[in-house]
Every structure is written in structure tokens, then in C-alpha cells.
Fold:
Amino acid sequence: QVQLVESGGGLVQPGGSLRLSCAASGIIFGTYNMNWYRQAPGKQRELVAAITRGGRTNYADSAKGRFTISRVNAQNMVYLQMNSLKPEDTAVYYCNAAQIPGPTYWGQGTQVTVSS
Structure:
């Protein structure tokens, strides 16, 4: 059974930082591209950051320079370090594992709220 379990969300003031973690099980982790998506109330889910099996990264324009995605294949973990957080970063953040072509899996999400 595939599981992606996110953690690390919470309430943070503008300008603060959070580190999201995603623990994967039930997949051969190193064969999957790993992604972080987010969905704010009333908005579509959007890709925030991606890291390929080989470690190449890509970011949404809104995340560039502030967020860093990383992975540790030996631990089946992917992380999203978020700095200089803004109120517009408030959303539920989802971990995603994808093979192209192939299956895609989602975590249950973790809430990030940026507010003073």
C-alpha cells in the first residue's frame, strides 16, 4: 500500500519559515519524480516545486528564490523548505509522487497558514 505522509505545516507569521516533510512508503522511491502542490480556498491545485529522480529541480515563479525542494532517497523523504513566507502562501500543501508514464500518488495534505 502506497502512503505519502506530509508533516510540518502550521501557523507562521509573514516573513517566517516552515519546513514541510513527506515520508513515502510502498513505492520504489528513487524511481519517482517528487512534487509539492498546494491548493488555496477557492483556487485550483497548483504545482509549487518539483524534483526529478535525478535531482533536478523546478519551481513555480511564486516560489523561486524562497522555496527549496530536496530529497533523500535513502530515507524515502522529500522536503520543502519555505522561507520569507507571505499570506498568499496560505494553502493546503500536498506531496505527490509521479512516474511518467506511470502511476501518481498523493498525500493527505498539510495546512500552511501565514498570518499575523
